[in-house]
Design goal:
90 residues, 0% strand
Amino acid sequence: MAENKEIQPQFDLNAKWDACLDLGVRRFVYSSAAGAFAGLLFFRSPVTRWASIAFGAGVGVGSAYSECSQKFDGSSQTSPNVVETPVAKD
């Protein structure tokens, strides 16, 4: 008497966690690599090179966090709601 219980995609937490973990790791690695490249290109001091790598990693983690929070909230928008103000006609 096993019933076929299919989970709808918007309620599948395992898929959301997998997608967010994948997104977070990818963005962390890619932005750290971009920070390392920029550090090698622009800076001479090892401290500033490490700082550029850390900044790139922070940007990657932050962008992954914001996108994952939107996935878990269920919103389909990528930008906040903007209320349109009426334009006065001359």
